[in-house]
Amino acid sequence: MGSGSLRKVKDLATLSFVESKANAALLGPPGVGKTHIAVALAVAACRAGYSIYFTSLDDMVRNLKAAEAAGRLTSKLGSYLRPAVLVLDEVGYQPLNRDEANLVFQVISKRYERGSIILTSNKAFSEWGEFFGDEVLATAILDRLLHHCGVISINGPSYRLKNRLGAIEREQDDAA
């Protein structure tokens, strides 16, 4: 992580973005530490007395769809709207259909300027139209999400892959 990104993480760690009900987005390829940073920020916010809800985007969408089918959507939405900080992990890993994207829009728009979101994504914002299956809906989501948002792009090799490749190389050296 570059010094600029490190400085941005330290700024987020002050939790001023939570106090002002702003958002934080951590972007980059798999394995660069986005989720670790999101969890660390959530733990810091929890220790500071803020309520937290951590979920993957896919789990949130699945839960909202099940609640909608059971006629309990408003109640289930509340579980994502109540906490001071909602952590949405792995945004962009699975494409969404229009109905699913609309459920995400409901959460984002209802939290707008009322509570913070920390999200992690392997997709650049320019790719969100494709991921959400609708450019207009993606633009509406991004408009609310990014209006008050600290964005950190993290690049570099996957820690998991780097560690695994190192272990494989050591195993091969030992076998030789």
Detailed description of the structure:
Belongs to the IS21/IS1162 putative ATP-binding protein family. This protein has 176 residues and is an alpha/beta fold. It has a single domain, classed as P-loop containing nucleotide triphosphate hydrolases (Rossmann fold, 3-Layer(aba) Sandwich). Helix content is 57%, strand content 16%. It has helices at 3-13, 16-19, 34-47, 57-69, 73-81, 98-111, 128-132, 135-147, 159-175, and strands at 23-27, 52-56, 85-91, 116-121, 149-153. Strand 3, helix 6 (98-111) and strand 4 (116-121) form a beta-alpha-beta unit.
Task: Give the structure's gist in a few sentences.
The chain has helices at 3-13, 16-19, 34-47, 57-69, 73-81, 98-111, 128-132, 135-147, 159-175, and strands at residues 23-27, 52-56, 85-91, 116-121, 149-153.
